[in-house]
Amino acid sequence: MSPQERVERVAAAARRAARDPSVVEDLARTTGLSPEGVALALSRHLETSPTPDDVRALVRSAPVAPVSVVVLSATVFVGALRAIAWAWAGAPRVVVRPSHREPRFAAALVDALGDPGVTLAPDLDIASVQRGEVHVYGRAETIAHARASARPGVRVRGHGPGLGIAVIDEAAPLDDAASALASDIVPFDQRGCLSPRIAFVREQAPTDDMRTLEFARAMASALERAERAVPRGEMSDAERAEAARFAEAMEFSGRSLRGGSSVIGVSCTLTLPPPGRHVLLVPFASDGALRELVAPLARHVTVVGRTDDAPALHFAHARTARLGEMQRPPLDGPVDRRPD
Amino acid sequence: MHPFPESDALHERARAFVAAFDAGAKMPETFDALACDLARFQARHVPGYARLCAARGVDPENLTRASDAPSVPAEVFKLARVATFAEGDAAATFLTSGTTIGRRGRHEMRTTETYDAAALAFGRWAIATGLGKQPAVIALSPSPRDAPDSSLVHMIEGFRGSFGDTTARDAYVIDGARIDLGRFDEVVARSTTQGRPVLVLATSLALAHLLDALENAVFRLPQASRVMQTGGFKGKVREVSAQALRRDVGRAFCIPESAIVAEYGMTELSSQFWERTARTPEAPHGVYAEPPWARVVPVDPETLAPVDDATIGIARIEDLCNVDSAFAVLARDRVRRVPGGFELLGREAGAPARGCSIAIDEMLGPS
Lengths: 340, 367
Prior knowledge:
Chain A is an alpha/beta fold.
């Protein structure tokens, strides 16, 4: 079986797993997403129909190894498809350790694949891996732990936390942009490494913020509508507390609007809203000002969402995408292109 | 500097609390009375605070209880100017530690007179009473020249000038990143000869580094010496529990653990809180006493309503000396009220990350 065929088989297995009603039902419980949130993830954010060019690009980027271990994170459960496809494209043997919190989708995918080359090992100890590679998806601590545990000669590749940012250019119709950005924020309740948390809004002059405020109102409406269609899943006490603090801080330092459960903050000073479908809007008036604002964030940015074809912002290792497509990257390699 | 009689009057009222404490007299007015006047003043002159009050449905003009005045999240000091007076009129500006994104928090002070009075009064009570002779002061911190925007260094310098033997040479023994053990030894040796105690004022991190430099050696301090220990290890590579640090410091300096007194303060405040173990050796560590002009109220992190005694909440700190900034500040520390004061239970780390969207704590950690 060629590497391309392996990738296509993983995509086909994902299509089958996504249609299994028992999997869908279990995922709402294990991910904490609402049933509608699970359905959204499976229908729009599972890359089950890659183009031949995408597959070729993924295969080209896949590391070659005798065996690859894939350690998955929870919540963005669809990531299992890409992680397994990428690993199997480069290694004839893949061992999958699902997240303890959300093991269901990975297990269903491996089961649907039904190939002895890809197996599950829920309790795998990274220290027991003798050779090959370990691909770790998730929090920085998880990756650090894996690096510390791995034996010499075993390569650990980390795909860690990040965020998406959006840039709203001067010509963008604000209502359309807001609807599109809301559709990027909602998936996985904003807990993915591509999830946008900050949007920069182009103004005419450095002291202006009228357009940003108008966009904030549009975002509030768009997020409220989106929440009616796809209710937010469970939020922990700590997450709700963070949202309350963010709202208070924005109320003091700028503006704070509500769109359903979402807090939309407007501020000239950069901060990070908590995940849970909250967003910070920051006005800017020139490309230079934008670059300066974004500079401290740069190493954490995985994707830049844009409203036009000539974006003012480029990062060497961040994807770019139209608003509305930030969480739908093609199956052309790892989602996160930042150097490991 | 522009005259600001309204602010001056409130500062005087705050300092009256400090003076009464120093004199062992009755407080000049109730905490609530001054607190509500401060909140009204701040709502009139700090637009952000007025917005916060409006958002919470609070009319400052009708406040009668301090607890009804909205608190300002500490992170606001990084996002906005929290000051009642004109820009350029600050006598001092203290900065918080840097973070990965955004700017450092700024606490501008129109005058440091109230801050200094409060810090000295309660600091003296906690750590500099009953020493016998005037102590020599050793500061395990940068000097004011090297850290002009640090409120902690400002406080240490105030203690050095007020409590210490000012004929002594410069007491700052941190030079860049290095602890000057030779100078430390000099001060200790001279103090021992003179029969003076030594007051060591240090951050927890500096104490940990000192212990590393000493390895297992002992550095006997003169009798009645005391150590102020402040701050934690947030964002640093190494982390040591407060108990372990205290034990090791006591062993290294040959002093009882009760002589090691923890202090809790924030750049965003004007007042500090202290353990009382130097005054009452049997008092438990980890319990902080409050001066009459400041108090810590544990609140629910989401509703911000006060929680019952012995329930853990987030620290809402009401500080009558924070005249020109924010009377009530919402910290990130978890606290619990206990007999004698409150316990400090570590920082709220922000919601633990779920998924791979970067956590606030990772992004906003120290730069």
